[in-house]
């Protein structure tokens, strides 16, 4: 069980009168007079706070993790009300508080973890005589007869651990004909020294239950190991794309407290996390880059800006699919941004879209829809077809995900597909009115992913009545990430200071 740092402000120490979860690292402060060493995972307010405490709490607490007891007033204009609004705080009854302290504190653990089972660990069960087609991180296509009873058809090798008291959530990406029925089976095993594994529990989930995330909790007193398999019956096509496993917060947020997900009818996900910050412009939108560990990127960097921010992430293919997808998928990302603009009352001129590497494509592509104040990017990738084509000669084995993206979007790895994927971006870019949007770009001069991105951005914006400026750093795409990030952060701070904070 992970340690959870809990701060309580008030006149009475709850840990002396209430039952507290063993995970709690408890800090009771009648007066918050010393600067904490690091963030608190949960903050409990049993009294109003002062102006000095407001500044400290803003710096060392997380949104969605603040709870205010019933006796504390949230009157208009008070520091406590301001703090609660900016940290998405919740009023909590005495009964709910007791349940939170005893049962729910473990769900507020720091950090996050998510992954997907690797395609190479997926196996076809013996006895299936139909057709099997492997398509890398796009999944496995099966076609044939599966029998009249639900029978194991796919299983994943290399069991994953589940700690004592831990909950893991699973999400299955798949597609199938209506003539095929499936179920997912999760078995928790326990291993001893020199003995055969013992089955702790078996959990079977029908198609209707798989419409949402499923939760597996280890209620044993021993560490378990999870074995997952898919069963099928009927006749037809079945595509198994990926099985995702994530450390769960039991509904309190995806990856982080307050984190959310949007899912299309094709079961493709996009994740987002919103922090109100100081509730003043701009809204800083940050698209995560390529990452095989699922979750959000840039949280602390964006939080230090002090302003509202929105993190957007996705986990398709291996490390992300460049935020490209069906019309519904792409519309959902635009809608997420617009919903938070509306929530804050901000116009497009009060939004900054940003990202690094794969995230730059998200910022540029959705910039065509949002028309923000600034698009701030580092290591830009615009011609994704070229990124895939460069895998063969310029970067052999360096970024094979680009080939998955090309094949997923265009259904081919041909030169025509390369051009088609490039055109998908540049056609949208050239049809956009960029007046009022500024571009700030840090790029690698010898970039082996997309070596023409900055040059093409300049060319395509030549008559667009806008401003573009950049900084080139010698090296290939991944040769000097720290230099790119340093420039990126300094530009962010400068744009906010000069264009927003002064007014």
- Estimate the global geometry from the Cα principal axes: flat
Provide the residue-averaged pLDDT: 96
**Through-space gap between termini:** 47 Å
Q: What is the number of strand segments?
A: 23
The helical percent reads: 25-40%
Strand content: 25-35%
Provide the low-confidence segments as ranges: none
- Assign the structural class, choosing from mainly alpha, mainly beta, alpha/beta, alpha+beta, or little secondary structure: alpha/beta
Main sheet specs: 10 strands, antiparallel
Number of helices: 12
Q: How large is the radius of gyration? A: 25 Å
Can you put this structure into words, describing what you see?
With 503 residues, the protein is an alpha/beta fold. The chain is 26% helix and 31% strand. It is built from twelve helices and 23 strands. The chain has helices spanning 14-17, 51-60, 79-86, 94-104, 299-303, 327-344, 358-370, 384-389, 401-410, 415-430, 453-460, 481-501, and strands at residues 4-9, 24-29, 42-45, 66-69, 90-92, 114-116, 122-124, 131-134, 140-156, 160-162, 167-176, 180-190, 198-206, 214-217, 224-247, 260-263, 269-275, 283-287, 309-313, 351-356, 374-378, 438-444, 467-473. The strands form three sheets. Strands 6, 7, 8, 9, 10, 11, 12, 13, 14 and 15 form a ten-stranded antiparallel beta sheet that branches. The protein has an eight-stranded mixed beta sheet with strand order 16-17-19-18-20-21-22-23, sandwiched between helices. A five-stranded parallel beta sheet has the order 2-1-3-4-5. Helix 11 (453-460) links the parallel strand 22 (438-444) and strand 23 (467-473). Helix 2 (51-60) packs parallel to helix 3 and helix 9 crosses helix 10 (415-430). The longest helix has 21 residues, at 481-501. The chain is flat and about 70 Å long. The model has no long low-confidence stretch (mean pLDDT 96).
């Amino acid at each position: 069980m992970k340690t959870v740092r809990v701060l309580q402000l008030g006149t009475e120490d709850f840990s002396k009168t209430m039952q507290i979860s063993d995970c709690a690292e408890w800090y009771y402060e009648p007066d918050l007079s010393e600067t904490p060493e690091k963030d608190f995972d949960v903050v409990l307010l049993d009294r109003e706070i002062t102006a000095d405490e407001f500044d400290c709490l803003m710096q060392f607490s997380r949104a969605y993790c603040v709870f205010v007891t019933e006796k504390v007033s949230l009157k208009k204009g008070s520091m406590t009300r301001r703090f609660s609004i900016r940290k998405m705080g919740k009023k909590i009854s005495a009964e709910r508080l007791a349940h939170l302290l005893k049962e729910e504190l473990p769900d507020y653990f720091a950090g996050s973890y998510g992954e997907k089972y690797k395609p190479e660990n997926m196996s076809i069960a013996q006895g299936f005589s139909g057709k099997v087609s492997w398509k890398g991180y796009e999944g496995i296509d099966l076609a044939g007869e599966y029998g009249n009873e639900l029978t194991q058809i796919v299983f994943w090798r290399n069991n994953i651990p589940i700690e004592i008291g831990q909950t893991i959530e699973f999400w299955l990406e798949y597609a199938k004909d209506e003539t095929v029925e499936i179920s997912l089976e999760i078995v928790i095993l326990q291993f001893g020294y020199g003995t055969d594994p013992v089955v702790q529990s078996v959990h079977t989930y029908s198609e209707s239950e798989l419409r949402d995330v499923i939760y597996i909790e280890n209620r044993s007193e021993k560490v378990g190991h999870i074995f997952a398999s898919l069963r099928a019956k009927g006749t037809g096509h079945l595509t198994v794309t990926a099985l995702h496993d994530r450390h769960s917060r039991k509904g309190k947020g995806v990856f982080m407290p307050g984190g959310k997900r949007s899912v299309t009818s094709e079961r493709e996900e996009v994740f987002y996390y919103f922090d109100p910050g100081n509730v003043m412009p701009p809204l800083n939108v940050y698209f995560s880059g390529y990452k095989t560990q699922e979750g959000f990127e840039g949280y602390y960097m964006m939080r230090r800006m002090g302003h509202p921010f929105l993190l957007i992430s996705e986990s398709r293919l291996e490390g992300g699919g460049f935020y490209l997808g069906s019309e519904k998928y792409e519309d959902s990302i635009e809608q997420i941004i617009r919903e938070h603009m509306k929530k804050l009352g901000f116009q497009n001129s009060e939004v900054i879209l940003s990202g690094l590497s794969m995230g730059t494509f998200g910022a540029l592509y959705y910039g065509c829809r949002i028309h923000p104040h600034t698009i701030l990017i580092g290591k830009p990738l615009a011609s994704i077809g070229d990124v895939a084509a460069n895998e063969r000669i310029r970067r052999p084995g360096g970024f094979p995900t680009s080939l998955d993206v090309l094949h997923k979007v265009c259904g081919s790895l041909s030169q025509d597909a390369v051009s088609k994927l490039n055109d998908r971006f540049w056609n949208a870019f050239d049809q956009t009115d960029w007046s009022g949007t500024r571009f700030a770009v840090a790029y690698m001069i010898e970039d082996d992913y997309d070596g023409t991105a900055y040059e093409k951005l300049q060319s395509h914006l030549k008559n667009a009545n806008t401003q573009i400026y950049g900084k080139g750093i010698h090296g290939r795409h991944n040769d000097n990430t720290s230099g790119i990030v340093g420039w990126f952060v300094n530009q962010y701070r400068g744009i906010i200071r000069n264009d927003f904070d002064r007014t």
